[in-house]
Write a structure and sequence with these properties.
Length: 737
């Protein structure tokens, strides 16, 4: 047996340096997910493919190694605005970074090139069009390039939703510059798109880092498109001062919605390709600098911004594909804070989008129709929305998320067995070569030319499902696909196979729970009047101080010429409004605040917090307690913030390397200190409402909150200690805090 190799002094030193730079420059105490492994892979000179959702920290994966290696990193980015945002943020951190594109004058380009040749520039952002210019290739050949980062790499693939032909030339250009390591990064790639990217960039040997597509802080909701303006204004009035994007399908609709919002005193601006370029830039800058709350836009807007505190993304019209939808909703909550993703849906939207495709080639039309069918299925299905989205990108979620409108207001469910068997058998009997529509035609006995040409009218299952409408079968097939009884063929778009789970099921069938689809043709008044989004009460931080810190941030940002989030992001302000730091040392301990930021921006924030603490007679962390006497340890702050974001306790425990009982201990300490915690999102997953009511009633009349006494009174066979402890926290939060 070979003993496990001890890490060398060099490796330990390198790890220490990485963590030191992470805190010093970026202000973070620890890496997230696969970040550290990705960075080490790049620094070892190996190719990397990174599939990571928006907001998970992709940029850090190439920015930090750029600071740790000699030379300049080339970052290939598709949009000018995106480059500018990234460069502004890096400059605000004291990092020398530039972009090179058509907006620069000749003298500015000369200055950038000189800086790169001198070796002082750590990151150079370029568009693929600029990179392909002969003069720029000649200049880069003279520079010391450490590696190449290809951002938004899905633009390479013809199967991706933002295909850019110029991206297909990148590999040849890299070859001209030498044998350089490549890191390709994207937030939206199905398995087919991933293979296409790796093949085109010739990085089939790349280490693949695929993290979950799940964005637990995003709330997904689809609403019927009725009384839409009334719903919209009602929602926006409750989100005053928060940043949001409203996507519309056409320029005309953008202008119409913008005018309507303006009349109703919503601080909004339009953004679409029909506006003059200078107006577009001005409107985008107003949004980034928080002079307006809302941008009403076509899909031309969004990929070009890196604003972390977008609190809501609303689709006024249905998007063309789930990839596009995921990319656009991905603009929300990039700082990890709870945010809303709301789509207004009408079947008429799909009909309108189908008309747009009539002039395309047959192949393009078929692909577009497949994408629209996926979009329509997502909108109408009663299945957990997060499960549907993740499944589309090849990821399986074991249970419903509890944090979408289908989970919080479920459609009617039913049990099916014979129909599930028939659907699986139909896929098997048609030799696993067809998609949903063909399977449904066979089951319903449709004698179409296509079905007849394959002789599928002779199958034993032909017409056996005639008792149900086509819509029923389409919904059933899609639901058993999401549940894992069927699987998609990666190489042939839309083709279905029976999975191993499906084969096992056919050997020993059982009833499967399915959900009825939404009926968007018949909307009740109750559905129409239901509030949009999630309730935003029960925040652990001091809301008055938070608003004051936001106002100060905006003022400082304007003086420095940076967007506000480049100074401090919202999670950092939330922590300041929870911990009340009054010294440079305490401010430096706030997550997202490095020593560089303390020196550059800390003074006015500390002065404001000190004055607020004095004016309101608040005891600070150094005086043992804060406002509601919370223990100020980092882990408690982390737990409070994660519970605010409705993260499952298992995930919080795993992130902090703690057991569930240990996390419960921490939660109880926080609760007993006087902080109100809303654990309903978690308790609702593990306890039925009737059982919750029984425990709540017990604590209301009990003489002691002792758990052992409660177990005896309520019965330890009916309730677990964990359930009673959680209900005690719920009770104390609502009654005592």
């Amino acid at each position: 047996m070979i003993a496990e190799q001890e890490p060398s002094n060099t490796m330990l030193s390198e790890k220490k340096d990485l963590h030191g730079k992470l805190k010093e420059i970026f202000g973070y105490h620890q890496f997230r997910g696969e970040q550290e492994a990705i960075i080490q892979n790049i620094m070892a000179g190996r190719n990397s493919f990174v599939l990571m959702p928006t907001g998970a920290g992709k940029s850090l994966c190439y920015q930090l190694p750029a600071l740790m290696t000699e030379g300049t990193v080339i970052v290939i980015s598709p949009l000018i605005a995106l480059m500018k945002n990234q460069v502004d943020q890096l400059n605000a951190l004291g990092v020398e970074a530039y972009f090179m594109n058509s907006t620069l004058s000749k003298s500015e380009i000369t200055r950038v090139k000189k800086s790169v040749i001198n070796g002082t520039t750590k990151l150079l952002y370029v568009a693929p069009e600029s990179l392909s210019k002969e003069s720029n290739i000649d200049f880069l050949k003279k520079a010391n390039i450490s590696f190449v980062a290809v951002d938004e790499a899905h633009c390479i693939s013809e199967w991706g939703h933002d295909f850019r032909p110029e991206y297909r030339k990148i590999r040849n250009i890299i070859n001209d510059l030498g044998n350089l390591p490549v890191i390709a990064l994207t937030a939206t790639a199905t398995p087919k798109v991933q293979l296409d990217i790796q093949k085109n960039l010739q990085i089939e040997d790349a280490e693949v880092f695929r993290t979950s597509f799940n964005r637990p802080n995003l709330y997904y909701e689809v609403r019927p498109k009725t009384a839409i303006k009334k719903q919209l204004i009602k929602y926006l009035k409750t989100r005053k001062g928060q940043s949001g994007i409203i996507y519309c399908l056409s320029r005309k609709k953008v202008e119409e919605v913008y005018e309507f919002l303006k009349v109703n005193d919503i601080k909004a601006l339009p953004y679409h390709a029909g506006l003059d370029a200078a107006v577009r830039i001005k409107n985008q800058d107003a949004f980034l600098s928080e002079d307006v709350d809302v941008i009403v836009a076509t899909i031309a807007f969004g990929m070009g911004i890196d604003k972390p505190d977008v609190r809501f993304v609303i689709h006024y019209d249905a998007p063309k594909s789930l990839e596009g939808y995921y990319q656009e909703t991905g603009r929300a909550g990039r700082d990890g804070i709870e945010s809303d993703c709301i789509m207004f849906y009408s079947p008429k939207d799909i009909i309108k989008l189908e008309k747009f495709n009539k002039d395309k080639s047959v192949t393009e039309r078929d692909n577009a129709r497949h994408l629209l069918n996926e979009m329509m299925a997502y909108a109408t299905s009663g299945v957990c929305r997060r499960r549907q989205l993740l499944h589309y990108f090849g990821e399986h979620l074991d249970k419903d998320c509890g944090y979408c409108n289908n989970c919080q207001t479920p459609t009617e469910s039913f049990q099916a067995k014979d129909e599930v068997i028939q659907a699986l058998e139909a896929v098997h009997q048609t030799e696993q070569r067809f998609g949903v529509e063909h399977i449904v035609d066979v089951l319903r006995g449709e004698k179409s030319a296509y079905v007849m040409s394959y002789g599928h009218d002779k199958l034993s299952l032909f017409g056996k499902g005639l008792q149900h409408e086509a819509a029923y079968w389409q919904s059933l097939v899609r639901q058993i696909l999401v549940q894992g009884y069927l699987k998609k063929d990666i190489d042939n778009y839309g083709v279905l196979h029976v999975s191993e789970k499906g084969k096992t099921y056919l050997d020993a069938p059982y009833y499967v729970r399915l959900c009825k689809d939404h009926d968007y043709e018949h909307i009740t008044e109750e559905e129409e009047d239901k509030d949009l989004g999630v309730n935003q009460t029960n925040k652990a931080y001091d809301p008055v101080l938070f608003d004051m810190l936001k106002a100060l941030r905006k003022k400082v940002a304007r003086q420095k010429g940076y967007p506000p989030f480049a100074i401090f992001q919202d999670p950092s302000l939330e922590e300041m409004a929870t911990t009340y730091p009054t010294s440079s040392e305490e401010l430096g301990q706030v997550n997202g605040v490095g020593q560089g930021k303390v020196v550059r921006y800390g003074k006015p924030f500390l002065e404001l917090i000190k004055k607020y603490v004095e004016d309101n007679d608040i005891e600070t962390a150094t005086e043992v307690v804060v406002k509601s006497a919370i223990n100020k340890s980092k882990i408690k702050i982390y737990i409070i913030q994660q519970i605010d974001r409705k993260v499952d306790l298992e995930e919080i425990a795993e992130a902090q390397h703690l057991s569930i009982p240990e996390i419960l201990d921490e939660i109880e300490h926080i609760c007993y200190s006087g902080t109100r915690l809303n654990l309903d999102y978690y308790i609702d997953q593990i306890m039925e409402p009737e059982r919750q009511d029984e425990v709540y009633a017990y604590f209301m009349s009990a003489e002691t909150d002792n758990i052992q006494v409660a177990l005896t009174e309520l019965g330890d066979e009916d309730y677990s200690e964990e359930e009673l402890r959680l209900m005690r926290v719920k009770f104390l939060s609502e009654i005592a805090n």
